[in-house]
Amino acid sequence: MVATRPGRDAVAATAGPALEVRGVTKRFGGLTAIREVSLRVEAGEVRGLIGPNGAGKTTLFDIISGLTPPTSGTVHLDGSDVTRQMPERRARSGVRRTFQRTQLYGRLSVEDNVLASMEWRGGGGGLVADLVAAPSRRRREAERRERATAVLEACGLADLRHRPAGSLPIGQARLVELARAIADRPRLLLLDEPTSGLSAQETERFGEQIQRLRSDGVAVLLVEHDVGFVMGQSDRVVVLNLGAVLAEGTPDEIQAHPEVRAAYLG
Length: 266
Prior knowledge:
By secondary structure, the chain is α/β, with parallel strands linked by helices. Helices cover 38% and strands 22% of the residues. Residues 8-14 and 124-128 have low confidence and may be disordered. The protein has two domains: 15-94 and 186-266, P-loop containing nucleotide triphosphate hydrolases (Rossmann fold); 105-180, no CATH class. α3 packs parallel to α6 and α5 packs across α6. The strands form two sheets. It has a six-stranded mixed sheet with strand order 6-7-8-3-9-10, with helices on both faces. InterPro entries: AAA+_ATPase, ABC_AA/LPS_Transport, ABC_transporter-like_ATP-bd, BCA_ABC_TP_C, P-loop_NTPase. Residues 19-265 form the ABC transporter domain. One of its GO terms (cellular component) is plasma membrane. One of its GO terms (biological process) is L-isoleucine import across plasma membrane.
């Protein structure tokens, strides 16, 4: 059985949303990919985002993560307008993302892929500290490796830590991408079709990790075609259709919504 969401009472309330998208529109020439989309995700909340192919879900992820600027509208993280921030700065503020097509460093080991997500913090002391193997540098390296080990074990990847990431089947590769995304403790996690190619056991493990993250106060925005998985994981669900918000509500409300059933669920 896939792990499902605990009650929202189990997550401590925080002031203001971790993510707020306000009236975002994106045009590519004469094509409007998304139109006046607004949504918010609280800390410790899993918000599902569903809709037919071409509804604009990945475009919205690109805008939130900073890969694509919106034509109009704004993106706010923890109350701050980050609409014009570069993706690197957003990542360092705690925005993490997985992709429809896994984006791993194929020649690096599984463990090194995870360690790479924490390298930006540095070790302190610069080149001199590296050359003399300063205690502070050794301590930080030990902390990173300890964190990587914990994440690999939680994702069921400990036995694969020395395997080249590019040699893994798609299901395990997606779990590596998740491990890399959460190793540096995200504030906001964007998951784009994370269960595609996963076995039932891997999907269950993925669901367990999502719920563990939300219990730690991480905001999760989940795009997924597996409707059962989305409904089991999410507190609320937003439905996009033709680039606009068609409906928003609890999983039960969305599954009973006549327009959603006609446009997407069938």
